[in-house]
Write a structure and sequence with these properties.
homodimer, 238 residues, alpha+beta, Jelly Rolls, Arc Repressor Mutant, subunit A, four-stranded antiparallel beta sheet, 9 helices
Chain lengths: 238, 238
C-alpha cells in the first residue's frame, strides 16, 4: 500500500461510486491514448502503472503524471473547454484499466452526487501538486529542483521499506529528467552525488530515498521550505 | 467580457447553483487569506481582481493565479488532504467576494449535483493550464517562456481591443516575473525587445499583445507548438 493509497482511506472514494466497466489490458509500452486520438474517457488504473506525458512536435517531453492502482487519469481532456493537448498516456508496465465516457460519468454524478465530491477532492489534490511543481520549477536551481522532485515522486509512488527509506520503483534517469525539466546527464550526476552523501541509495530496479538526509541536503542548499514536513510531503498523485 | 467569460457561456456554470452569501469588500492590497490562516473557504470574485501567490520563508514567490469576476479560488485548501501551503490571496484592486465553507458547498453539491459537475469542469481547466505552465517552465528558455507566459496571461485576463490586440491591464513587470519564474530585469529587457519587434505595445496601465506577431516570434525561437492555435489559446484562468 503506497502513501498515496493510505492517504485516500479517509476521504470520499470515487471507486465506491463508479459502476464497473469492462477491463482493458495493456502490455508494457502500449500507448493508451495520444494527442491524435484525444482522450475522451476517464480512466481508472486497476493494476500496473501509467505515465502521462506532454510533448511537442520538437520532441521535447515532460512527465506530467504517474498513475498507480486506484488512480485516475484522462479527466482534463474530458471536461476542459479547450482543444486537447499533446498528451500521451503509456502503460509503464503490464496494466489493467477501466474507463468511462464523459456522458457515463456525468450521468452517474447526477444520480450520485458524492461521486462528484470525490472527483473534486482528487482534482484539488492534483492542482496542489501541480502548483508545487510550478513553484519548484520557478524558483529552484537544478540541484535543489531534483531533490524536491525526488520527494514529490516519493509522495506519488513511493513505498515504505523496513529500513525507513521510501522506495521508488521503475524510474529511469530519463524519466526523472522528464519529470524535473532537466537532462538525463544532470540527473545521473546529481543522483551519484546524493548517493555519496547517503541521501539516497539505488539499485537497478529502484531508488531508496532517505528523507531526513535529503531534507538536510535541501537545507544546505538554502531551501528549508521544501523539506519534508514543510508542506510538501504525503501528497497524492498529480 | 473577457475571453475567459465568453468561454464559460457554453458550460455548466457554478454561479447558477451556488446560493448567495454575504458580500465581503476588500481594498487594493488587502490580504484575503495567508498561510497563517489556511484558506478553508471557496471564494467567488464578484468584482475586482485577486492574485494568489505561493511563497516560501526565503521570500521567493510565484504568482499562481489571477482571478477575475466569476472566477473561483481557495478550493485546493478546502478539499486537499495535505496540510495547507504557503499561499496568499491579495486583492489586486478594489474587490468584492462571496465565500462558502466546505460544509456549505458539499451540502449544496449533494442537493444539486450539477454544481459538482460545474466545479469539476473548472478544476479540469485549471489543471490543464497548470500543466501547460509546467511544460513551458520545463522545456523553454527564458525568452520563449516569457512570450508563452504573456499568451497564457492573455487567455486568463486579456480583453480584446478594437484594433485586434489583446489587452492585459494592471500587470507590473514584477508580477509578470512572478508568473514566469524569472526576474523583473529580464522581463523589462524582453518586453522592450518585443515592443521593438511590434509584437507588443505598452503604456503605463496596460500591455497590448499582438498575437500574430508574438506567434511569429515564437516560431523564430523554434517553439511553434506554443503558438496560438497550437492548443495554448483561449484557456480559462488557472
Amino acid at each position: 500500500m503506497s502513501m498515496n493509497q493510505r492517504l485516500r482511506a479517509n476521504r470520499h472514494d470515487p471507486l465506491h461510486h463508479l459502476q464497473k466497466s469492462q477491463i482493458a489490458k495493456f502490455a508494457k509500452g502500449d500507448v493508451i491514448y495520444e494527442s491524435a486520438s484525444p482522450e475522451t474517457r476517464l480512466y481508472l488504473v486497476l493494476s500496473g502503472r501509467v505515465q502521462v506525458f506532454h510533448s511537442d512536435n520538437g520532441g521535447q517531453r515532460v512527465l506530467l503524471q504517474i498513475v498507480e492502482p486506484e488512480g485516475f487519469f484522462g479527466e482534463t481532456g474530458m471536461w476542459g473547454a479547450a482543444p486537447p493537448l499533446s498528451h500521451t498516456a503509456v502503460a509503464a508496465t503490464q496494466t489493467e484499466l477501466m474507463s468511462w465516457t464523459s456522458q457515463e460519468v456525468e450521468a452517474q454524478i447526477l444520480r450520485e452526487p458524492s461521486l462528484g465530491l470525490a472527483l473534486i477532492e482528487e482534482l484539488c489534490e492534483r492542482c496542489t501538486l501541480l502548483r508545487e511543481r510550478i513553484f519548484a520549477l520557478s524558483v529552484l536551481p537544478n540541484r535543489a529542483r531534483l531533490m524536491v522532485a525526488l520527494l514529490q515522486l516519493g509522495d506519488m509512488i513511493g513505498e515504505d521499506t523496513e529500513t525507513g527509506a521510501v522506495r521508488l520503483r521503475g524510474l529511469t534517469h530519463q524519466l526523472i529528467a522528464d519529470y524535473t525539466g532537466t537532462s538525463r546527464e544532470i540527473v545521473t550526476m546529481e543522483l551519484n552525488r546524493l548517493r555519496r552523501l547517503s541521501a539516497i541509495g539505488y539499485a537497478r530496479a529502484y531508488i531508496d530515498l532517505h528523507k531526513d538526509a535529503l531534507a538536510s541536503e535541501l537545507r544546505n542548499e538554502g531551501q528549508p521550505s521544501f523539506c519534508p514536513g514543510a508542506g510538501l510531503t504525503h501528497r497524492a498523485a498529480g
